[in-house]
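Box S1 | Example of a co-folding query
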Amino acid sequence: MDCYRLSLRGEVPLHGETYVSGGKNTSLAVIPAVLLSDEPCTIENLPDIEDVHVLYRILLRIGAKVDYTPEEKKMVIDPRTVHTTVVPFAFSQQMRASYYMMGALFGRYGEAEVGYPGGCDIGSRPIDQHIKGFSLLGGEITDENGMIKVKGSLFGTVVNFDMITVGGTINVMLAASRAQGNTILMNAAKEPHVVDVANLLNSMGASIRGAGTDTIRIRGASHLHGTTYTVIPDQIETGTLMIAAAATRGDVLIRGCIPTHMEALTAKLLEMGVFVNNQDDMIRVRINKGHRAIKLSTQEYPGFPTDLQQPMSAMLTRAGGHSEVIENIFDSRFKHLDEMRRMGAKVTISGKTAYIEGVPELRGAPVTATDLRGGAALVIAGLMAKGITEVYSPEFIDRGYEHLERKLAALGADMRREKVE
Ligand code: EPZ
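Box S1 (continued) | Returned holo structure for EPZ
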């Protein structure tokens, strides 16, 4: 397979208008959710990213009829031809969120067998809460040869999550939507894409109330019908573009976003001296001088999102003063900062806190992405740095951002994708 790198020359303020693509994390749940329907469904505004392509291949592998046009951001899925509830390890290990196939197949067919999702470079990522929910719904769980199997008749229940888990909340909601009787999810995650998945299911005839709060009530349905559904814009891409605009001391209008999803980031950018103006489905971000240091602590929604911790910590390497970044959600999400030391960043990490001493200038350097949001953080560091930065392993970025370098170049960034000899 050919290797590429992103090559960028920094210190160019971003200017102009850009747009936000459909949400990655919502799409990775909405696409499997369609398997709960007894009729074909159309999903629109899907981002053209590698993780969606992986899900497309998984749907074909289990026998669904899928008409997918990436450039039209649309997938028409007919689940009536599904002929197996087994997702082979070779497919499920390509993407952690393939765990949603478990909730969807178990909910629709009473059984599912999916490869145990791997951890990744942001720490261990168990799915014990997903399993707890499936078991309480009536599933018998077996775990052999790296595959998880869940089988049984689903009956409504009460699931009180031991910690707030986005994946666990959504996965159990998927299965419960086809259970006999009512289910209550307590200590549920409140992320925008939890609400988006509930809205999709309700458009298919489900009865889900309370999504977006910590208690979700689901009345199981014996039948769910087809629908046409448009996924919400990507909250994390929106935030990444906001941070890129501010980090380069630019002036950017971001269209097609949902400002109310961005309140935690907006509050921090204002604290840093950045101007942020919200207008309907647009956010304008601008600053023409240096930004202040802050203290930042990641929390579940509506707190500051862990997925924006890495891009934000890149921006803080050039803040005026000492910043503290506390990562409460994952146990090792600072690897990108190790790379940034090579660019002149002054960072010390102790436990779940990164202490960042802002420097007046970063210097371009060759760096390597090790995960999706860390890769985006390295791009932001490169946009700030003097000289050339080469970001290797950009395929991590391609998993979750639709044409990021194209969007940034359209805003004036001097960057391109190069083949590595
Ligand atoms: C989702 O991951 C997102 N991924 C992540 O985005 C995001 O960082 C995370 O939610 C938090 O917002 C998708 O939606 C595909 P969790 P998920 O379950 O569902 C622990 C990105 O960059 N936990 O909310 O896996 C877990 O280890 C990705 O787009 C358990 O212990 O996150 C973590 O420490 C990265 N047991 C914490 O809870 C469980 O059963 C939060 O995990 C489940 C989770």
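The chain has a mean pLDDT of 96. The chain has two domains: 4-21+233-419, 24-230.
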